[in-house]
Every structure is written in C-alpha cells, then in structure tokens.
C-alpha cells in the first residue's frame, strides 16, 4: 500500500489515463537490475526511483572519479573515492526515501551474474564494455528476463529492448567482444539515451504502450536525428538459438 506522501509524489502519474493506484502499487513491487551506476545508470536510476519502482538493484564495483562527473550526475565532487553504488544510493534516497536500493559492489562475471541478477523483473544494461554486456546477455536469455540495451559515445547513442525468442539477443547483432580504450562522451548524451531506457522500463513494468522490441534506435546528437533499424534474430546465435 502507498502512504499519503507516496501518493503525493506519484500524483502526476495517477491522473494518466488507465494508470491509477493499481499501476503505482504494481511498480512498487517490481525489482529492476541496473548494471552500471555511471553515465547511463544515472538517469535510469534517478527516473526509476522517482517513478516509484520499489526495488532497485545497483551493480557496480567502481569508485567515483573526477573524470566521471561530466555525465554521472548521481555522484558529487565531494564523494570522489566512494563506491559508486554507495554514492548512488545516497542521491536516490534523497530524491525518494520510499524505494529500496540494494547496492552490489561486484564485477559481473560468468560465475556470479545469475546470482546477482536474481529474480529481477527486468535488466537495464548501463554498462560501458562489451565483455560484461555479453555476460549480462547470457543471464537475460537463460533466465528469460528482458534486457534494455543501450550504449553511448561522444554525441551519439543506441537503444533497443531484448527478450528472446520474441526478439534477438545482444549476441545476435553485437559481435564485438572487447571494448576499445577510453570512451569520450558529452555528458548530456547518456542523459538522452538513459532517459529513453527509463521510459522503456517504466512502460514495460506498468504495462503501457509498445517497447522497442526488434527495433534498434540510433540517435545522433550532432544532427539531432533518430534512425530506426529493424533487428532480426540470428538463427545460428550461440546464445539464443535454442530459445
Ligand atoms: Zn542471439
């Protein structure tokens, strides 16, 4: 049940056609696994906490560094050196104390990923490297948990909604195994793409609208153009071919 303060916080949801307290209470019971509390994770986590998603699991083993602060708006100059998940938890509870934040200071590996993701309703890929993304993808496929993939670089980004066998998995269309060096990013770019990830997660959990299934959206901030590419499953994909 929602308390009077929560009803005030979510009052601008409650008036949306067909939303009501039923949807809001449903969101309070949901659990979202957010991999990465950095550039994408910042808007994703802020908006999911603000939307009243009841259980947010944050996974990041990194510590706050000065080079993060142009884009990772969960963190603060005064928290340089702190674990990102602890810094994030502080910011999120300042915004909304009525959600549960579970910080995990672990690096995702093939050994621990299934345990860390647990029985989450959805996975949000806010990672910055392909190695960890492919590990997360395997958990998404084997546990049948949908995953919202996104990536950003400089002034551009991409996003899609993955849930095999209805859609491809990440390995069907991303073959890169390793990431290359430092990824330069204009801070507002993960703000754009991460906000879109939050919209996708909220829609899916609330049962509203149509998600980006089988559609990969590219955004170019320099020209302010969006391009949509239709995705198909790779029938020989080693990760999802048996789904
Ligand atoms: Zn696949």
What does this structure look like?
It is a single chain. The N and C termini lie far apart (37 Å). Helices cover 35% and strands 19% of the residues. Strands 3-2-1-4-5-6-7-8 form an eight-stranded mixed sheet, sandwiched between helices. Helix 5 links the parallel strand 2 and strand 3. The structure holds zinc ion. The site of zinc ion has 8 residues, from helix 8. Zinc ion binds next to helix 8.
Overview features:
243 residues, alpha/beta, Rossmann fold, eight-stranded mixed β-sheet, 35% helix, 19% strand, binds zinc ion
**Total number of beta strands:** 8
Would you state the CATH class? Alpha Beta
Q: Rg to the nearest angstrom?
A: 17 Å
Q: Could you give the distance between the termini?
A: 37 Å
Strand content: 15-25%
Give start-end ranges of low-pLDDT stretches: none
The largest sheet is: 8 strands, mixed
Shape descriptor reads: globular
Secondary-structure-based class equals alpha/beta
CATH topology: Rossmann fold
What's the CATH architecture name? Answer: 3-Layer(aba) Sandwich
Mean pLDDT: 97
Please tell me the total number of domains.
1
What is the ordering of alpha helices and beta strands? HHHEHEHEHEHEEHHEE
Bound molecules: zinc ion
- Please give the order of strands in the largest beta sheet: 3-2-1-4-5-6-7-8
The helix content is: 25-40%
